[in-house]
Design goal:
single chain; FAD/NAD(P)-binding domain; 7-stranded mixed sheet; 28% helix
């Protein structure tokens, strides 16, 4: 994509997932000129289906985004597939440069780039991610109900994760790996009949493209599913030049904003997993819609102030 002349949009949205497309839909229906720039690498791409999304439960992630693009563009939004490699401030707002050399200009910037799941460096985890290695009991728990579920400890929230999956199966096994377990957590696991398995996890046992167990240094423990809490890191590096940086969090990092999505950087808003690490698809879409409504109100206020200033200038001349 190469722009022949400078076109200043009302909003440039970086990220075309549920949050970004939902924001674009609201903005386009408000007759705002909006462009979504999306790199085409959604976080949930490995998953077979999106679950817990009212009226769309079971839809594939790709189909969900395809429908979202169609809806937003039907109202005049522009969606381009490109990777953003630089964002800078200009007198009129922001300049968003893509890796292929195009520069998009916008009065406002909405960040909806989502996050990256960083997994423990255990052979096989990444390859099975979204299949039989999962993280969210609400997204995929029903699909693995009543199976043998192994929970791999990665931090202080792993016990809580085990308790959530225990609601879905009577056979949950807690792999301590290299973590420590405090006394209260041990009591909780014991009370629910969740065995704690010590020893370093060396990898996964795969048989005929199916997860069959967790390999320790000295044995294989049978499981059909592994639950692991990833470290969730906001995709924010490209925005450092305008003062937007990720805030550290025990579970990863996020971009801080108020309840409307407005960041401390003037003119910049954020929505979805970039600011809320726990947001599922439905929550991310709702967050994008909310941010877009408040962003549009901000633009309305600016447009009105300009109109009032022009009116007063005209009256002064007369």
């Amino acid at each position: 994509m190469v722009e022949s002349k400078e076109i200043v949009r009302d909003v440039v949205v970086v990220g075309g997932g549920a949050a970004g497309l939902s924001a674009a839909l609201i903005l386009a229906r408000s007759r705002r000129r909006v462009t979504v720039v999306d790199a085409g690498a959604p976080r949930n791409a490995p998953a077979q289906a999106v679950h817990g999304l009212l009226a769309l439960d079971g839809l594939s992630p790709r189909e969900l985004l395809s429908r979202g693009r169609a809806e937003a563009t039907r109202y005049g939004a522009e969606v381009v597939t490109a990777e953003v490699d630089d964002v800078s401030r200009t007198p009129r707002g922001f300049a968003v440069r893509t890796r292929d050399g195009a520069v998009l200009h916008g009065r406002r910037l909405l960040i909806a780039t989502g996050l990256v799941d960083e997994l423990p460096q255990i052979p096989g985890l990444r390859q099975r991610w979204g299949r039989d290695v999962l993280h969210c009991p609400y997204c995929h728990g029903w699909e693995v109900r009543d199976r043998t579920i192994g929970v791999l400890a990665t931090g202080p929230m792993s016990t809580h994760q085990a308790l959530l999956f225990r609601q879905l199966s009577d056979d949950v096994r807690f792999f301590l790996h290299d973590q420590e377990l405090d006394g209260q957590d041990r009591v909780k696991l014991d009370a629910l009949g969740i065995p704690v398995i010590s020893g370093r996890v060396a990898g996964l046992e795969i048989v005929e493209d199916r997860l069959a167990g967790v390999r320790l240094d000295d044995r294989i423990v049978p499981v059909e599913t592994v639950a692991v809490a990833s470290r969730m890191v906001a995709r924010a590096e490209v925005f450092a030049g305008i003062g937007v940086t990720a805030t550290p969090h025990p579970a990863g990092s996020f971009v801080a904003a108020d309840e409307t999505g407005r960041t401390p950087v003037p003119g910049v808003w954020v929505a979805g997993n970039t600011r809320d690490l726990s947001a599922q698809v439905g929550a991310a879409a709702a967050d994008g819609a909310r941010a877009a409504a408040h962003l549009n109100a901000d633009l309305v206020a600016e447009d009105t102030d300009r109109a009032v200033a022009r009116l007063l200038d005209a009256e002064a001349i007369r």
